[in-house]
Write a structure and sequence with these properties.
The complex is a heterodimer. By secondary structure, chain A is mainly β. Helix content of chain A is 0%, strand content 52%. The mean pLDDT of chain A is 91. Chain B has strands at 4-5, 11-14, 19-25, 32-38, 45-50, 54-58, 61-66, 71-76, 85-92, 100-101, 105-110. In chain B, strand 7 (61-66) and strand 8 form a beta hairpin. The chains are: A mainly beta, B mainly beta.
Chain lengths: 115, 111
C-alpha cells in the first residue's frame, strides 16, 4: 500500500534554532497537509497546500512557519525560530484529486523536541 | 470557534461487548465526518467516514450521524483487546478542507 513518508522520525533542537521537517506524499496526490499534536492534546490543523500554494492555514501557522514543495516530490515544513511550545508530533498528510477524505493518508510523524 | 467534543474516557468494555463512542460538533456547516483510531505514539488511521444522516456499517464498525442534533457516534461490535486505542472524531466542510479533530476517547477492551 502506498504511504506518506516523513523524516526524521525524531528531531531534537535548541530553542531559537530553525528546523525543517520533511515529507514525501503519495505520488499521485494533489493536496498536502501538516497537522501537529502536542502530547496529550488533540490533532491540530496547521496548513494545506494545493497547486504549489497555501490553500488554507490555521492561527497556529504564523510567520515562523513556512511550507514548500521544492522538487515535486518533497513537501517540507520549516519553523524558523523554534519555541518550547513547538514541541509536538508533526504529521504530514496527503489526499488524491478532489476525492473525499476517505483517501487522506497520514505519515508516521516527526516528534519534535525543543529544548 | 468550531468545536468537536468527545468524552476523554477511558471507556472500559469487556472483550466481546459493544463499545459506543460519541462525538458532538458545533459547526452546522460540517459535511463530512470521520472516525480515526490512534495507537499511542502513532499516526491517526481512518476507520470510518459518514456523510449522510443515518447508519453506515463496515464490518464490526457502525457509524451513526444525526446532523439535526450535531451528533456522530461509532459502535464497535465484538470488541477485541486490539481495539484498545484512542478514537478520534473529525469533521470538515468538504474534501480539501482542514479536518477539525476532537481530543479523542480512550477505549480499553479487557480480556
Amino acid at each position: 500500500e502506498p504511504e506518506v513518508t516523513q523524516t526524521p522520525s525524531h528531531q531534537v533542537t535548541q530553542m531559537g534554532q530553525e528546523v525543517i521537517l520533511r515529507c514525501v506524499p503519495i505520488s499521485n496526490h494533489l493536496y498536502f497537509y501538516w497537522y501537529r499534536q502536542i502530547l496529550g492534546q488533540k490533532v491540530e490543523f496547521l496548513v494545506s497546500f494545493y497547486n504549489n500554494e497555501i490553500s488554507e492555514k490555521s492561527e497556529i501557522f504564523d510567520d515562523q512557519f513556512s511550507v514548500e514543495r521544492p522538487d515535486g516530490s518533497n513537501f517540507t515544513l520549516k519553523i524558523r525560530s523554534t519555541k518550547l511550545e513547538d514541541s509536538a508530533m508533526y504529521f504530514c498528510a496527503s489526499e488524491d484529486t478532489l476525492a473525499t477524505n476517505e483517501k487522506l493518508f497520514f505519515g508516521s510523524g516527526t516528534q519534535l523536541s525543543v529544548l | 470557534q468550531k468545536e468537536v467534543e468527545q468524552n476523554s474516557g477511558p471507556l472500559s468494555v469487556p472483550e466481546g461487548a459493544i463499545a459506543s463512542l460519541n462525538c458532538t460538533y458545533s459547526d452546522r456547516g460540517s459535511q463530512s465526518f470521520f472516525w480515526y483510531r490512534q495507537y499511542s505514539g502513532k499516526s491517526p488511521e481512518l476507520i470510518m467516514s459518514i456523510y449522510s444522516n443515518g447508519d453506515k456499517e463496515d464490518g464490526r464498525f457502525t457509524a451513526q450521524l444525526n446532523k439535526a442534533s450535531q451528533y456522530v457516534s461509532l459502535l464497535i461490535r465484538d470488541s477485541q483487546p486490539s481495539d484498545s486505542a484512542t478514537y478520534l472524531c473529525a469533521v470538515n466542510q468538504n474534501s480539501g478542507y482542514a479536518l477539525n479533530f476532537g481530543k479523542g476517547t480512550s477505549l480499553l477492551v479487557t480480556p
